[in-house]
């Protein structure tokens, strides 16, 4: 330490919140470095479930300063609603700090997100329609409005007036929609949102660096995951930011020399939401957006797919959408190890594999008759990839009550050891149930 990164290694929904919450016990700051309220994480504390979209997981600890970094895009209305929810449930959000350099999501962004996705029709990306992509686009175009602009009404209104001319012209001429009223937007953001958020707005780069220079422990928490990364994911079915560990440097303003521990979180199987390639996908009986058609699968495959969805409760925290399930993909994970410089792995939802006669791990792809053990760089090859599986015996003993690594069933331990051997990184943490304390710690395996 002092800096640790927690990153998803698949297509999101790996259960990062649970282990971020666990690791946060040792931290002084927990920093969110990218994304917006298009991704959520669920924590179960004393039987209570907390679904968070913007607030870092560490907000549930009194000793932690939770920080929303400059790389995050923020809908102030959503953030205020989340803070109010926490207050109602006995959690004090007053320690939360919000970067003045983070960009604001405006009603224009959400309306355009919805309209563009609808216009794409069958080629839609599966966006959550929360305005994330259009906000990052404005940021890159240097016309975005930042959190700090809420503190200067004249600057906010001037920037909004320029933005409104462009966005309303697009709404009217391209989509045949009525314009949005910038005066109403300004009133809501300046008169309602700004007073609530002003006490939380800070120079978070200085805040984080001062903590690191004091030798305090800082955890950096990403949203989404490696293969939704704008540069390294399954483009264009990706998010609009960089969830990989390197995104910490730009999204929180921290140089790479501070980072000495990178924990990759992977589910014991794989899921993704929305459209895009998925080599190990299993069909399910009820349609999922972008999912494998059930008529292309046998009943055993559908039974397994339904098992992962129903037993694993694979529904989006934010959208409620049914996720697409599949077997564990070691080819993907090897690439995630490289992209993030992972030092260790945390495996979640091992308990969902309870009771299966056998479990499969994809160890390679067959791409047009050639066996490959690395992720193809060309999208056509990835779409054509056929998984090559190794099959391992399942375990018939429930693992939910296991409290130590040496208590895992031999077959479960063999499964974890096989994953380690495939990707070259030790599995140090294993989730065995949804509860905050339902995990086991394993010794670092040799590489």
Describe the structure.
The protein has 447 residues and is of the alpha/beta class. It has helices at 16-23, 76-88, 107-120, 132-140, 153-173, 182-197, 204-213, 247-252, 299-311, 330-340, 379-384, 410-423, and strands at residues 3-8, 29-32, 41-45, 48-52, 65-68, 73-74, 97-99, 103-104, 201-202, 218-221, 259-267, 270-272, 324-326, 328-329, 344-348, 358-367, 370-372, 386-393, 427-431, 439-441. The strands form 5 sheets. Strands 9-7-5-2-10-1-11-15-19-20 form a 10-stranded mixed β-sheet, with helices on both faces. Strands 14, 16, 17 and 18 form a 4-stranded mixed β-sheet that branches. Helix 3 (107-120) packs across helix 4 (132-140) and helix 5 crosses helix 6 (182-197). It is globular, with a radius of gyration of 22 Å. The mean pLDDT is 91.
Low-confidence stretches: none
- What structural category do the secondary elements indicate? alpha/beta
Q: Describe the global form.
A: globular
Mean pLDDT across all amino acids: 91
Largest sheet: 10 strands, mixed
Strand element count = 20
- Please, how many helices? 12
> Which strand-content bin applies to the residues?
15-25%
């Amino acid at each position: 330490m002092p800096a640790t990164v927690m990153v998803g290694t698949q297509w999101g929904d790996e259960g990062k919140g649970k282990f971020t919450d666990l690791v946060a016990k040792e931290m002084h700051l927990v920093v969110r470095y990218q994304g917006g309220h298009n991704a959520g994480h669920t924590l179960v504390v004393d039987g209570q479930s907390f679904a968070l979209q913007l607030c870092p997981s560490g907000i549930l600890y009194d000793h932690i300063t939770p920080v929303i970094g400059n790389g995050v895009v923020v809908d102030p209305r959503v953030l205020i609603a989340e803070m109010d929810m926490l207050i109602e449930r006995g959690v004090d959000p007053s320690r939360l700090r919000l970067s003045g350099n983070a960009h604001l999501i405006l009603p224009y962004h959400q309306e355009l997100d919805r309209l563009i996705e609808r216009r794409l029709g069958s080629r839609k990306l599966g966006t959550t329609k929360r305005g994330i992509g259009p906000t990052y686009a404005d940021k890159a175009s240097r016309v975005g409005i930042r959190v700090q602009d809420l503190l200067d009404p004249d600057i906010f209104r001037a920037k909004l007036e320029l933005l409104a001319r462009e966005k309303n012209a697009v709404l009217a001429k391209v989509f045949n929609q009525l314009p949005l009223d910038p005066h109403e937007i300004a009133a809501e953001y300046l008169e309602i949102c700004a007073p609530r958020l002003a006490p939380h707005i800070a120079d978070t780069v200085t805040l984080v660096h001062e903590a690191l220079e004091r030798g305090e422990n800082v955890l950096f928490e990403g949203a989404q995951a490696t293969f939704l990364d704008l540069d390294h994911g399954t483009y264009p079915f990706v998010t609009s930011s960089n969830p990989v560990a390197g995104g910490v440097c730009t999204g929180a303003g921290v140089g790479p020399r501070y980072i000495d521990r990178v924990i990759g979180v992977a589910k014991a199987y794989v899921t993704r939401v929305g459209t895009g390639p998925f080599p190990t996908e299993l069909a399910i009986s009820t349609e999922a957006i972008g999912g494998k058609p059930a008529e292309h699968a046998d009943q055993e495959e559908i039974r397994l797919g339904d098992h992962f969805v129903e037993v694993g409760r694979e529904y989006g925290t934010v959208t409620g959408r049914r996720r697409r399930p599949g077997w564990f993909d070691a080819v993907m994970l090897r690439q995630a190890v490289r992209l993030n410089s992972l030092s260790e792995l945390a495996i979640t939802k091992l308990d969902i594999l309870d009771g299966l006669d056998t479990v499969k791990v994809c160890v390679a792809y067959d791409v047009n008759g050639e066996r490959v053990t690395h992720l193809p760089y060309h999208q056509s090859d990835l779409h054509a990839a056929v998984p090559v599986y190794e099959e391992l015996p399942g375990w018939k003993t429930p693992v939910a009550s296991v409290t130590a690594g040496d208590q895992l069933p031999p077959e479960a331990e063999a499964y974890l050891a096989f994953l380690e051997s495939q990707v070259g990184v030790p599995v140090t943490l294993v989730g065995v149930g949804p509860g905050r304390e339902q995990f086991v710690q394993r010794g670092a395996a040799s590489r």
